[in-house]
Amino acid sequence: MKDLRRYLVLKYVQYLVLSSSNAISTFLGLLGSLYTIIILQSAKVSSKSTAVLISSLAKADILVSVSVVSEMVVWTFDVSISSTAFTSALLQNLLTANTHISCLLLSCVAFEAYLITFFPTESRHLRTVKNATLTSRVIWILVTAECTLFQTDDLLKASSTSAPNRSPCVLLFHFSSTAAALLKSISYFLGILLRIVNVYIYYKIFFSMSNR
Known about the structure:
82% of the residues lie in helices and 0% in strands. With 212 residues, the chain is mainly alpha-helical.
């Protein structure tokens, strides 16, 4: 459990403290996720809702791995990509999806910690493996839909730039562009809100434990 707590601290710093990821935090995060996945396979770790959320958090770094490995292959072997703009947008959207999934799951872990600290008995029926699994799946589905919208918008932008007069999907282009811009604004303000909420939750937990 100490290792899992350290991993959570690392992830909080990576996604909710730092303004943007860097090479060091990304590398440490990948190592921590790999180690956490191995730990969670052990029979010594009980199957609880927190473990389910942490497992989903660690698996989210698969998106980062795909992006990093792809860039390394292109750079090392000088691989020529037929659609550079599409691939670049896809890799960036994978990183965005990883960030959003991680922030939401970390907030779920924080909320669960709040319930355990202040409402341990009353919230027991909520803190189940089934609910944690359902929450993780919903987060993955929503962020996947978001990533798909962003990728579609980038693809339509590239198509309209290369052949602006031939595009048969002008209405689709305007709709996806507007929807993507709106979703990015919502994601930005939601990210700020999650940072504030997480700080407040752990502030309350810290002083509650201190008073005890």
